[in-house]
Records
---
Amino acid sequence: MKAIQSAALSVVLAAGLAGCTDSGPAPGPQQQGPTVEPAPGVPSSAGPVTLRGQFQSQGAVTTGTVTIHITQAGAVLRLENLATGAGDDLRLMLSPGVLVPGTGGGAGLSSAKLIELGPLTGAGQRVEMDAARWAALREPIRSVVIYDCAGKAAVGTANLQED
């Protein structure tokens, strides 16, 4: 329970300190050369990758699905049939963490890192990320989070699985 509470507090603190903005890729030199691995989630020459997930409720009843289709050109995130509670400033976030159950029945993310994609605009929202933006993500994306920046709380999370 304490680990989940600590993880949830870390998510709230990280998002609050970040001001709910995408800080972009970390500054510093970019590695180049033939030994560099492809960015997480970038498909190999074998073809595109599709990630899917069902939203689970956290701070509000949240339902719907998310799909991320990843190709060499970038990634396209689509929300389908999304329904969630009201919030003053709902944002769409990516996370390398996953939603894990707590001992007290609550749930929290296994990582405090959140990468903002922008405001939540609707049940059928579509977000396109070019190859450079997707490649700038330094860790694999394992979940999509609906986050209320005003309330500093996750309202729903979808853990992603490869199709």
Note: Helices lie at 2-18, 131-135.
---
Amino acid sequence: MTTRTQTGFTAIDLDLYAKAFQLLDPAPEPAAPAPVPVVLAAAPPVHRTGPVEKTLTDALAFLDTRGWAKHRLIHPEGARCSIGALRAAAGTRNTAYRDAGNLLLAEARRQHGKQWEAIPAWNDHHTGAQVRGVWEAAIQRAHHLNI
């Protein structure tokens, strides 16, 4: 004996049923990612050329434009020795002039030996390339020291 029971229900659309179930009981939304802290990098320090660096740089520029000389402070054609270029760049024998001269002499001694007592003697016993190398190193050192 087979008995059929009729329920009167319509067939269920399983996809529709799943969608309705989701609407009634939604899954929790994923948590928003934690905000990434924004670290504002400090602006790099601005280098301000110090008086010693400026004096050395101006003096080397003078040598580049007017020429470099040995055995005399000022050549008749305008070239100068290292001391002459320092004097022209500084304008007066001020603190920057003295400090630039001391730094230049210290670099000359570091590169060419401690026997040099003064810039003129060192200047007169070296080639233009050697003298220029000392000038460039002295400028870099003044820049690094921020003087």
Note: The two ends are 112 Å apart (CA to CA).
